[in-house]
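Annotated sample (chain length 65).
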Amino acid sequence: MDQESKQIMREQLEILKKINRHFVHQRILGIIKGVIIVGLIILGVIQLQPYLDQLQGTFSQIQGI
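Output written by the structure step:
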């Protein structure tokens, strides 16, 4: 192989490394986003539980009347 071909292969290798790094970062950020979304949903359900219990009690009283 001549010097020019080696240089082109090195450049392509560097580009492929950058692309691979990008995909790894995207996967990690996707997992983090998923964890945050699930965590917020769980936190929301925990925070709304007293209000949901109160609403259920109100509906039970209405049905009893």
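Annotation: The helical segments are 3-64.
Annotation: The chain has a mean pLDDT of 92.
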